[in-house]
Design brief:
- The chain is of the alpha+beta class.
- It has a domain of about 150 residues: NADH Oxidase, CATH 3.40.109.
- The chain has seven helices and four strands; from the N terminus they run H-H-E-H-H-H-E-H-E-H-E.
- The protein is globular.
- The chain starts with a helix and ends in a 30-residue tail after the last strand.
Length: about 230
């Protein structure tokens, strides 16, 4: 693959929140995970495990989790995700992204019930045919989260190359201990995120949503080149 092909692959990948019912062969997921595992890691520790579900097991897990949340399950975060406190510039960026997502979904900003319903779709993996729960050993250092992030990006790009759509689901970490009990995770495993995989319903309005990216000048500086 040349650079232009890879550039197109990476740029065209997006978070998809509406999938078709078409099943995904297990062999395809196995290949994608095998590719993802080639990501580099410090000490070759290869942090991260993947609980992959489809069909009835995925439906049963989603039903159990959603029922518990609706019954008032407490949020229990096992690792920090956002800055605390969140800088004003990041709060504004987060709010703008959320507003654009609601607009793409046809949800009025004042319709709190519709907004809540959309958020709950995280816990149903957006009805994708494949749901993955990603975990990490709690004994790992902070750098291992960076290593696992490279693995996750490799996974998402491999899925894109295989013709699948995807969506990362950070919200799954809100209920890590409960999920651990549901799935029989090891005591040292904590839930990092979820991933929805499947075939995109390309006509769905919400799938037209694309997040804005920072301009190059906002996150990179260059030295050592001549300028005109």
């Amino acid at each position: 693959m040349n650079f232009q092909s890879f550039k197109a692959l990476a740029i065209n990948r997006k978070s998809v929140r509406k999938f078709t019912a078409q099943p995904v062969p297990m062999e395809m997921i196995e290949s994608i995970l095998t590719v993802a595992r080639t990501a580099p890691s410090g000490g070759n520790l290869q942090p991260g495990k993947f609980k992959v579900m489809a069909g009835k097991p995925l439906q049963a897990f989603s039903d159990t989790l959603c029922a518990a949340i609706e019954d008032g399950l407490d949020i229990t975060e096992q690792y920090t995700y956002f800055p605390d406190p969140m800088p004003r510039s990041m709060l504004r960026q987060q709010a703008e992204t959320a507003a654009s997502l609601f607009e793409a979904a046809g949800i009025d900003r004042k319709d709190t019930q519709a907004r809540d319903d959309l958020f709950m779709q995280n816990y149903r993996f957006f009805d994708a045919p494949v749901g993955i729960v990603v975990t990490i050993d709690r004994r790992m250092g902070s750098g291992c989260y960076m290593d696992m992030g490279m693995t996750l990006q490799a996974l998402l790009l491999a899925a894109q190359a295989a013709g699948l759509a995807s969506c990362g689901i950070g919200a799954l970490a809100n209920y890590g201990p409960f999920i651990g009990e549901c799935l029989g995770l090891e005591d040292d495993e904590i839930v990092v995120c979820g991933i929805a995989l499947g075939y995109e319903e390309s006509d769905a309005a919400i799938n037209q949503f694309r997040t804005k990216r920072l301009l190059l000048k906002d996150y990179a500086t260059f030295t050592g080149w001549r300028t005109p």
